[in-house]
Design brief:
Elements: H1 2-7, E1 15-19, H2 24-36, E2 40-44, H3 49-55, E3 60-66, H4 78-87, E4 91-95, H5 100-103, E5 113-117, E6 131-134, H6 137-151, H7 157-167, H8 170-189, E7 194-196, H9 206-212, E8 219-223, H10 227-236, E9 242-243, E10 253-255, H11 267-273, E11 279-283, H12 289-302
Parallel strand pairs: 1-2, 1-3, 3-4, 4-5, 9-10
Antiparallel strand pairs: 5-6, 7-8, 8-11, 10-11
């Protein structure tokens, strides 16, 4: 979905401004795939409004960002960034996989294109690989569909059916998982050195996040001081929560981004976007939050925290 949303509107000589904090595969698109086609990218700190403006070039065609960002939970001021893009004739492509349209509606803030990994919250049970791209009817008919029809990135009917079934319970799951995540986040806030949860007042962009989001979402991250060794010890100590790279699942899942989702970026790029060796990402599911807290408590103790 992300590849299609970008390539369908870009050509050799074009320029993209992209957020540095993003899912590892999205960074691979901007860092490795687009340059092969003569498309350049300037990567910026998406939290800095001035950085967006400073990065614009005469050939800038797309702003590409995720909010909240994976896994550092950076928040983009969509009203400002999308408004800036409109002023310069630039198309905004927003990765809204962490929130879905239940928790956040980027088009209400001026976004042109919204893309999703439907594998995540839309499916909700880790059953299929799927993606979705949303836009105006005109952009879809004139830009997206000609590319999609002729290059073939189309979802199978069965996978589409599974996602449609998941959509029937999306709002119920997203809201309950957000509530659970806030309870788990408040527990962890008192136990770990650093937590990145937009629903907590300690998050530096909490106010902006709550202005843009209906609820905080099920996903957040936190860091431990003992690096990869301590992070892996914590993961290995879990009994109820599963170790998995997926998010948006009805089950609670945790992973170590530096050795999984963002491993392919390399250490320098990870450091620049704030993905340290001690960072852990958690997806809070539909289990009783008291059970999740109990599991985290014993795993933290096993890891020396």
């Amino acid at each position: 979905a992300m590849t299609t949303a970008l390539l369908c509107q870009l050509q050799m000589g074009d320029h993209v401004v992209a957020a540095r904090a993003a899912f590892g595969s999205c960074r691979w698109l901007t860092d490795n795939l687009l340059p092969k086609w003569g498309i350049s990218t300037t990567t910026i700190d998406s939290r800095d409004n001035d950085a967006w403006k400073a990065a614009i070039q005469p050939n800038t065609k797309v702003f590409f960002f995720e909010t909240p960002a994976n896994p550092t939970m950076d928040i983009v001021d969509m009203a400002y960034v999308c408004g800036l893009a409109r002023e310069h004739g630039i198309t905004t492509v927003v990765d809204n996989a962490f929130a879905t349209s239940v928790l956040q509606r980027p088009m209400d803030f001026g976004a042109d294109v919204v893309a999703y990994s439907a594998t995540k919250l839309m499916d909700g049970q880790g059953r299929v690989l799927a993606g979705a791209v949303c836009s105006s009817q005109k952009w879809m008919d004139e830009v997206l569909l000609p590319f999609q029809r002729n290059t073939g990135p189309n979802l199978s009917p069965f996978n589409a059916w599974v996602v449609h079934k998941g959509l029937e319970t999306l709002e119920l799951r997203a809201m309950r998982q957000s509530e659970n995540a806030l309870k788990v986040g408040k527990f962890l806030e008192a136990r770990v050195p650093h937590i990145m949860h937009p629903g907590l007042e300690s998050h530096p962009q909490h106010t902006l996040a709550m202005q843009q989001m209906k609820a905080c979402g099920p996903i957040f991250a936190f860091s431990v001081d003992g690096g990869r060794k301590q992070a892996h010890a914590l993961l290995n100590g879990l009994q109820l929560i599963d170790i998995s790279n997926n998010i948006g699942d009805a089950r609670s899942l945790m992973c170590h981004p530096a050795s999984s989702t963002h491993h392919g970026m390399g250490p320098e790029a990870r450091e620049a976007m704030g993905v340290g060796e001690g960072l852990i990402r958690i997806n809070v599911g539909l289990e009783d939050p008291a059970d999740l807290i109990e599991d985290l408590d014993q795993a933290l103790k096993a890891a020396g925290l």
